[in-house]
Amino acid sequence: MMDAETLAVFRAETEGLVETLEERLLALQATPEDRELIDGVFRDLHTLKGTGAMFGREDIAGFLHDFESAFEAVRSGAAEVDAPLVAISLRARDHVAALLEAEGAPGGEAILADLARHLGKEAGAEEGFALDLGEPPPAAGAGPWQLTFKLPADTLVLGGKPELVLAELRELGATRLRARIRDVPPLPLLDAAELHLGWEVELPAEVSEDAIRDVFLFHEQGLELTLARAEGAPPPAQPAPETSISPAEPAPEGPTAAAQPRPAPAAPPSAAEPRDASAAAPAAKPSAHMRVPAERLDDMMDRVGELVLAEARLVDIVARSGDPSLVAVTEDIQRLTAAMRDTTMSIRMTPISTITGRFRRLVHDLTSKLGKRIAFVAEGEETELDKTVVERLTEPLMHIIRNAADHGLEEPSGRAAAGKEETGTITLSARYSGAEVLISLSDDGRGLNREAIRARATARGLLGEGAEPADEELFGLIFAPGFSTAAEVTELSGRGVGMDVVKRTIDGLRGAIEVTSRPGEGTSVTLRLPLTLAIIDGLLIEVAGERFVLPLAAVDEIVELPEALAEPGARGNAFLDIRDSLVPFLRLRQLLQSSGVPGPHQKVIVVTSADGRVGLVVDRIIGSNQTVIKQLSPLHAGVKTFSGATILGDGAVALILDVPQLVARGRLEADGREAA
User: Fold this and answer.
1) Which of these, 308, 369, 395, 314, lies nearest to 344 by C-alpha position?
2) Residue 116 and residue 114: Cα distance in Å, rounded?
3) Average pLDDT for 195-205
4) Which CATH number is 535-675 given?
5) What are phi and psi of 601, to 5 degrees?
6) Domain 4-122 = CATH 3.10.20.600
7) Helical ranges in 181-249 per DSSP H
8) Please, are residues 131 and 79 in contact by the beta-carbon 8 Å criterion?
9) CA separation (Å) from 424 to 372, 427, 485, 561?
10) How is domain 145-246 classified at the architecture level of CATH?
11) Per-residue confidence band for 457, with pLDDT thresholds at 50, 70 and 90
């Protein structure tokens, strides 16, 4: 029985491998002739099997051993990749995921039987799985294999078990196994955590070279391996992938000498290479990766946030004291705090690509369930968001994709009649826009039925009789709880729950949703989300004696308010002429209903979002500020002008202005003035 820590490591390793396996299988369906993908799938299966065996999960190792043996037909070229094979392989992937959740989960035998039946049919067998997976017999005079290998020095540290490798070699018929002890250092220099032993093994001539090398798929990084025939003309040795041979390794004697691989001059040294000060300087080591629980990152982010607040208080105290020595120390603390904040934030930022694999699988499953041809396209997958945002986005995006596939895309016959390609496309795109990230899901289907939505909304009392709302308002009603235009409830839709989940989740992330649609052309749902929910660079401003924060990433420029427009009642159309471009502006004093008279030197901060640019008139600009975002209370969460609050150095609270809402309001007022 694994302890909690070991179980966490096992789950982290296997879940990552299972996701990679799924991605490769879905890619393999699009490019079935890609040998690199086929080999990658086989490596994932082998690595998963080895991981299960290493951690004592014989149910996973046993299932994958049988599946891997059958999949060998694909790798050897005896069977071809097609859609049914990918579907069965994805079921196998799901079964491994089920075994991770519940040991001994049923269903594995049926999957193996389906795979054997399919591959047997592909190979031309009349019934059952009857494939000759063996290679041609060795040429006359070819002797047994002579294998010399040394596992990476960190094998034991990483939890590897050399005895499992030796057991696999014995299953291949290994004989004359001999340990090589010449690399074991003297006792005073012995590091018990490193693996120093190597082995020499003789294997039967009929064993294939691929079968031998497959034993070491789980130990490729840093592996030293030499393989040659004992008699006859030995084939040219192909080093194992990512194999490095120590330059200090003496050439083996006997028939294996000719097959000794040579290291490339610039190759990094093996982990097992002797540490000799007189040796040439090694090349840079590859960066190491660590798996850290998300809770620890959240805790670190909270502590960094408190550190930023403490630093702000210190800066305020030192500014009042004027002590030069304290000022110098405070500047160092500010520099270190900013660096720590940036590093912590970079750790939390995650690319959208970490979740797009799930959507590819979802579209693959929807294709078979709905009987439609659907292609999924992802653009801007490198766009990064706070990991908390990315994790919470998965469910809403899945609901939007299901809705697009079920309601938006037509049947192949309907698309052909409309002059479209039979394959419908769902496109996920992500891009930055100021302090926001815009994530759009678009389809090229039939579009939203405006009349059906209006009739349904009227029947439910969401619209009055005869009301003619704008498209933006009407399309926003599809996110109302229980709202659905489906004629009947199906497995995928009809209960009016999915889009309600989307709305609640995006509201919880301080985001916004926009829907655009054209009949016969398709629908696009755009999610506007903040870059981060933790710490931002802010611009501290003052309006009527109160301080507010603007996200610095949304600030384009700052200009003086012309004297002719300085007074609220001054004549003018509330537009600024900035480099021959008209920019509408809002007076924050009027917007916040502040009393008093503004000063003589008001400033205009031009901010931007996807809707455009708007100027915000403020009394004074105080300076930049590291802003730790605090959520507003439920009582104030509905106030759209503010997206949160922060604590300043003197302990006062400053509200954070919601730039997209301000820009949208400014554009609306500008449109109203133009219409008037």
Assistant:
1) 308
2) 6
3) 86
4) 2.30.30.40
5) -120, 70
6) no
7) 209-214
8) yes
9) 8, 10, 21, 51
10) 2-Layer Sandwich (3.30)
11) confident
Residue 36's alpha-carbon distances to 82, 151, 198, 217, 450, in angstroms, are 16, 25, 30, 15, 48
Q: Which helix (H) or strand (E) holds 253?
A: none
Q: Which residue has the tokens 């004359």?
A: 176
The Cα–Cα gap between 10 and 99 comes to 13
Say whether pLDDT at 305 is over 80. Answer: yes
User: Within a 13 Å sphere around the CA of 562, how many CA atoms are in the beta-carbon half?
Assistant: 12
The strand pair at 620-628 and 581-587 is best described as: unpaired
What does each C-alpha distance from 382 to 145, 353, 391, 429, 658 come to in angstroms? Answer: 46, 6, 16, 10, 26
DSSP 630: B
Strands of the sheet containing 581-587, edge to edge, are: 555-560, 603-609, 612-618, 581-587, 575-578
Phi/psi at 272 (nearest 5 deg)? -95, 5
Structural domain spans, the chain? 4-122, 145-246, 302-350, 352-530, 535-675
DSSP one-letter code for 258:
G
How many angstroms separate the CA atoms of 182 and 524, rounded? 67
Name every residue whose Cβ is closer than 8 Å to that of residue 473 and which is 6 or more positions away in sequence.
Answer: none
Triad 654, 437, 300: Cα angle to 5°: 60
Q: What tens digit of pLDDT does each residue of 103-138 get?
A: 777 888 888 888 888 877 544 443 333 434 344 445
Strand order of the sheet with strand 423-433?
373-379, 423-433, 436-443, 522-530, 512-518
At 225, phi and psi to the nearest 5?
Answer: -145, 135
Q: Do domains 352-530 and 535-675 have the same CATH topology?
A: no
- Residues 38-90 pLDDT 10s: 888 888 888 888 777 777 778 888 888 878 777 777 877 777 888 888 888 88
Predicted TM-score (pTM) above 0.85? no
* Closest alpha carbon to 509 in 401, 585, 446, 437: 437
Q: What 8-state DSSP symbol labels residue 463?
A: S
∠ CA 278-284-285, nearest 5°, is: 105
Q: How far, in Å, CA of 527 to CA of 13, rounded?
A: 32
User: To 10 degrees, what angle do helices 324-348 and 294-321 make?
Assistant: 160
**Distance between CA atoms of residues 225 and 596, nearest Å:** 82
Q: How far apart are CA 120 and CA 87, in angstroms?
A: 16
Contact 160, 54 (CB under 8 A): yes
In angstroms, what is the C-alpha Rg of the chain?
32
Which of 165-174, 236-245, 306-315, 322-331 shows the lowest per-residue confidence on average (mean pLDDT)?
236-245
Token duo for residue 504: 């609640």
pLDDT of residue 85: 86
CATH number for the domain running over 352-530: 3.30.565.10
Q: Which of 387, 288, 389 is CA-nearest to residue 345?
A: 387
